[in-house]
Specification:
Blueprint lengths: L16 E5 L5 E5 H5 L3 E6 L6 H13 L1 H4 L3 E7 L3 H11 L5 E3 L4 H5 L3 E4 L3 E4 L2 E5 L5 E6 L13 H12 L2
Parallel strand pairs: 3-4, 4-5
Antiparallel strand pairs: 1-2, 1-5, 3-8, 6-7, 8-9
Length: 169
């Protein structure tokens, strides 16, 4: 379960505003604090849209169902993919989760999960942060793969159990 990288459980989550693409086809600049006013947020960083490992990850969240049906927590993705690509990714995979566009990886850097794959290519380390409505990180999972952290996928069932326990839902 995670490692020493990234912000720590119990810390205030870094606040940001970025383009958010929604499943209904809309997109605009949305602050994280706006999402937190409605529910807790499970912020999930991933490499980019349409890479095979990311397709598997998002299909697993989609197929798990509980995250879609529960109003107590909202799953939100973050990757360096552009808004246009996010629209196509959501449509092609029939996702019901919004996705932030972090093209410059500033959000990933603020959460301590920006890295260079093979010391060359800037990416976001695959990771998930459960942020409660007060903006406090209650759980984190960060990929620990020694060479390419994009290869690990989040343990959706473990995350589900943790969300239920931490948010008492």
């Amino acid at each position: 379960m995670g490692d020493s990288r990234g912000i720590s459980v119990g810390e205030d989550a870094p606040q940001f505003s970025a383009p958010l693409v929604r499943p209904d086809g809309s997109d605009d600049d949305v602050a994280l604090e706006e999402l937190l006013s409605d529910s807790a947020v499970l912020l999930c960083f991933y490499t980019n849209d349409f890479s095979p490992d990311c397709v598997s990850e998002w299909c697993e969240f989609r197929d798990f169902g509980w995250f879609s049906a529960n109003d107590d927590v909202r799953v939100v993705g973050v990757s360096k993919s552009r808004v246009r690509t996010h629209h196509e990714f959501i449509k092609r995979l029939d996702l019901n989760f919004p996705l932030y566009s972090d093209t410059d990886l500033d959000i990933a850097a603020a959460y301590g999960v920006r890295y260079r794959a093979f010391r060359l290519f800037p990416r976001a380390r695959r990771s998930c942060f459960l942020i409660d409505t007060d903006g406090v990180v209650r759980y984190k999972w960060i990929s620990e793969h020694p060479l390419d952290p994009s290869r690990d996928t989040p343990p959706v069932a473990e995350i589900h159990r943790t969300v239920e326990r931490e948010l008492d839902v």
